[in-house]
Write a structure and sequence with these properties.
Length: 259
């Protein structure tokens, strides 16, 4: 009897998914036996994931820590290259936002904008008495939101002159307000501030390609908390797109990318 079911998937230049599956199969053979995992699979939400994360550490299965967002739980193993992602299926009424991220990453690679996204793929399905539960992997990045925001503000100031610093008798109020609004967006790390940063740091053609991809795939929630540093570059780490999952439920939308 196989407790972990492999799925077919394209290889990535970033990570060897087959090696990761081989590495984590015996680990999840231990995790699946925890009563906390069984409880989580039956009711996957923020609270049950926190309990599961503590149980994994307490049982000395993996050394790391757990964190949660609105749609996913993430277990971050220490001294590893990846994080493990657990979709909160019960909380999200069955919608699998991790699956959407895998689809979007493969679509990004095909659209030649994959370098702006943190690599992710599905590891396998884990068997439990309550059915199969999907586990995903994402490359581990440095999620320093303060450093990301500081970088955005610095880039904005380098590329935009404050109207109040102009040597003129009277400052144009519209120009001043526009500058303040855009500066505040950078300081807050908002979606608008992130968009401004990408626009400032990419050449016109590359920015247009990325912007077109984000719009077409309904990836609309990219703030500084959804960015991280990886291998000297800034990458997007949460790109399932909330509306994307709700609107694109047809099988062909996923099947085109092997899902």
């Amino acid at each position: 009897i196989y407790y972990i079911i492999y799925i077919e998937s394209e290889r990535s230049d970033n990570m060897n998914i087959d090696s990761l599956r081989e590495q984590y199969m015996p680990i999840f053979d231990q995790i699946r036996k925890l009563p906390e995992f069984e409880e989580f699979v039956g009711n996957s939400n923020i609270d049950t994931f926190r309990v599961l994360s503590m149980a994994i550490r307490k049982a000395d299965i993996l050394d790391g820590y757990g964190d949660t967002g609105e749609t996913k739980g993430v277990f971050v193993p220490y001294d590893e290259d990846i994080v493990l992602k657990f979709p909160l299926l019960s909380r999200c009424k069955g919608f699998d936002y991790c699956r959407a991220e895998v689809r979007n990453y493969r679509a990004a690679e095909k659209a030649e904008v994959g370098q702006y996204f943190a690599w992710t793929d599905k590891l396998f399905d884990v068997y439990t008495d309550k059915g199969y539960y999907p586990i995903y992997a994402m490359v581990q990045v440095d999620c320093d939101e303060e450093a990301i925001t500081d970088m955005m503000v610095e880039t904005f100031c380098e590329n935009n002159r404050n109207p109040d610093d102009e040597d003129v008798d009277e400052v144009d109020e519209d120009a001043r307000q526009d500058y303040e609004d855009r500066y505040n967006s950078a300081c807050s790390g908002s979606t608008e501030g992130v968009n401004e940063w990408f626009h400032s740091t990419l050449d016109c053609r590359e920015y247009a390609k990325l912007d077109r991809f984000l719009c077409f795939n309904d990836i609309d929630d990219i703030h500084s908390g959804n960015l991280g540093f990886y291998d000297g570059s800034v990458v997007i780490i949460d790109y399932s797109g909330y509306n994307f999952v709700l609107e694109h439920t047809d099988k062909e939308w996923y099947a085109a990318y092997g899902l």
